[in-house]
Every structure is written in C-alpha cells, then in structure tokens.
Specification:
The chain has 219 residues and is mainly alpha-helical. Helices cover 60% and strands 5% of the residues.
C-alpha cells in the first residue's frame, strides 16, 4: 500500500473468464450495431459499409456473440457467479428506490454511494434487476430473432396476424435499439467511479479497490 492510501485491492473481484466475455461481447455488439444500422438504412450514395461486407460481418459477429452467450450461461451457473444477479433483502423495495434516488440526485451532490461493491455483493439493486432482465430475457430475444432471420425458412408464416418475417425483423430491430440505449447508459455509469476511468480499469485488471467501510451497504 502506498503512503496516504486507505485502499486494498481485491485482485480477483472480476474473474478472468468474465472479463474476457465482457470485452469480447462489447466488441461484437458494437460490430453488430454498426453493420445492422448500415444494412437497415442502406441507400445509394450513403456513407455506409458495403452491404455484402456488412452482412458477412453482422452474421459472423452474431454467431460469435451467440457462442459467447452460451459460454456465459454455463460459466455463470457453474462458477456460482449467477448468485450476484439475484435480488435479496430489500433489493426490490427500499433498496432500489434508494439507488434510483442516488442516480437522480445524490450522485450530483457528491453523496456516498448507497451500496458498496464487496465480494458478497457486486451489484447494487438496480444493477441486479437490469442485468437479470438483460441477460435472461432481452439478450435471448436478440439471439433468437437473429437466428430466425438467418434461417428465414424456420420463421412462422404469421405472428399475431402479422407476416412472420416482418414481425421478427421488427422485434429484432426494437431489441437492438433497446440494447444500444443500454450500452450508452452503461458507458456513462462506468464513468461514475472514484475517477472517470476507475471502473473501466477494474474491468480490465479484475482488481477492485476496497475502501474502509465497504463491508456493508451505506444507509
């Protein structure tokens, strides 16, 4: 510990497999967003990726993203990391309200974070609810609709009175926009650590800097 520092490093806060999945997932998703938008808004003379190239990159990234997601599901279950996504105590009541109030008001006043990251609690109540819905509801949606578009002959002819291909394409686009919005918010919240880059460094090194008093949530 250097002089004047009251922080200890938990070197295995984010396991190597989780960090590898996180960053590869981010790169693949960025590629999917760029190529998907390029194909969706394709028109002559527009500054975009060539359609054939965009389709190849999009399909390749989609396949790799699916494989990565399957690896995530298996490792998240076998390693026990999945327990960090499960709400507990007052997470779905006062806890999430406390976190929302912090994000809307407290963070701009310099208030202490209501929940500290510790080995037994890596996510605050809002993160738990968001990641649980994202990884087990939204993400499967983008994967399933993507594969249906890859194999259009497997699509149902009609879905709730709409043409199957049109309904699946619309659902895929809507989920993609929702994930793009999440990505923007996720990056912003990543800058709200002790320094703008602190949380990004943690997700690269896997080490979390602990401060005195981080063993319990703040009141």
């Amino acid at each position: 510990m250097t002089k004047g520092t009251n922080r200890n490093m938990n070197a295995d806060f984010y396991p190597r497999w989780l960090r590898a999945w996180h960053w590869s997932n981010a790169v693949l998703f960025a590629a999917l967003l760029a190529t998907g938008a390029s194909m969706h808004f394709a028109e002559p003379g527009a500054p975009q990726v060539d359609f054939r190239t965009a389709r190849f990159v999009h399909n390749t990234a989609g396949i790799l993203l699916t494989l990565g997601y399957l690896i995530f599901l298996v490792r998240n279950t076998l390693s026990g990391n999945g327990r960090y996504y499960l709400p507990e105590g007052d997470d779905l009541g006062a806890g999430i309200l406390r976190q929302v109030r912090y994000y809307l008001v407290g963070i701009f006043r310099g208030d202490p974070h209501p929940y500290h990251h510790i080995p037994g609690r890596k996510f605050n109540p809002m993160q738990k609810l968001t990641y649980l819905g994202l990884m087990y509801l939204v993400f499967p949606g983008i994967v399933v609709t993507g594969w249906l578009m890859f194999f259009p002959e497997k699509m149902p002819e009609r879905i709730d009175g709409l043409p199957g291909a049109g309904a699946v394409s619309l659902a895929h686009a809507i989920i993609g926009y929702a994930l793009a919005l999440f990505l923007v918010v996720h990056i912003y919240l990543g800058t709200t650590g002790s320094t703008p880059l602190a949380l990004f460094r943690e997700m690269i090194s896997g080490a979390h800097a602990e401060t005195p008093g981080e063993n319990t949530p703040a009141a």
